[in-house]
Amino acid sequence: MNLLGVLEISGSALTAERQRAEVVASNLANAETTHTAKGGPYQRQLVIFSAQPVSHAKFASVLSDVGDEYARGVVVKSVVPDPTPAIRRFEPGHPDADREGYVAYPDINPIEEMVNLMGSARSYQLNVAAVQATKDMISQSLEILA
Amino acid sequence: MSWSDTAVIEKLGEYLNLAAFRQTLIASNMANVDTPGYRTRDIDFQGEMSRAEDELGLEAMQPRVFEVSGLIERPDGNNVSLDRETLLLARTELQFRLAVDILRKKFQEISSAIKEGNS
How much is the pLDDT for A139? Predict the structure, then answer.
């Protein structure tokens, strides 16, 4: 692994954290959605992260050497629905109300989602800092030539 | 023992390689800060440098990577510590800069000798 490969590790984390933020944003946006294409209310989604060896599909593969097996990027393994049952609210006038007059709403706690979003933003920042440091190291090593 | 310029340059090269290797591990740790079950991994920098002294050099040997113990583990089994990793990131970057600066100095000295002192 060389320094160019390190950028790919941090880059994988940026992608994963952005996907997590997207899922959280969609949870927040659909906190009151009672109607989906599948029928029934929107279901809260959760991302599952998994550590994975960095694939060298790119430029760095030509230069890769010592320590490749220790390089671990991160990927979103899957996005799974939260199995928590929907909340039932009594709203007989609602078009999605069942026979007893109850409407199923997704069980989404905005505070929980906001905390998740902040966590994702902080992790993104952390990895941007790592990219910056690696970039500085690469440009420093170019200074040897100067 | 006096070291020749080439030996010093060789040593600095190993130092740079090791710093870059550690950077890989730090980046991996940082990337997996939210991955359940991920364990912080690191190398013993000083230990590896003195090991390179005895052996053939870093190109030939694989640095020993271990899981860091004594860190606070979260309920999901992940034990990446943000402060530890950020500190190490800054430290490794400075170590890298140090070695690059000395290396440049060395090359300047050699070049100055070649040009008989007229730089």
Answer: 93
The encoded tokens of residue B62 equal 């694989």
Tokens of B31: 């990337």
Among A4, A141, A142, most B C-beta atoms within 10 A, so best to mutate, is A141
Question: How far is the alpha carbon of B2 from chain A, nearest alpha carbon, in Å?
Answer: 24
From the list B26, B27, B35, the residue facing A51 with the nearest CB is B35
Supply the ipTM of this predicted assembly: 0.82
**Chain A residue with the nearest C-alpha to that of B43:** A70
Residue type, A60: A
CA distance, residue B62 to nearest chain A CA (Å): 7
- Reduced to 3 states (helix: H, G, I; strand: E, B; else coil), residue B29 is helix
Q: For A53-112, how does the pLDDT look when each residue is reduced to its tens digit (9 = 90+)?
A: 876 555 555 555 545 677 889 999 999 999 999 999 999 999 988 999 999 999 999 999
Domain with B91, as residue range(s), is 6-110
**Which residue, among A146, A141, A136, has the nearest Cα to A10 in the 3D structure?**
A136
Residues 6+ apart with CB under 8 A from B45: B18, B22, B95
Our count of domains for chain B comes to 1
Q: Residue B42 belongs to what H/E stretch?
A: strand B41-42
pLDDT at A135: 95
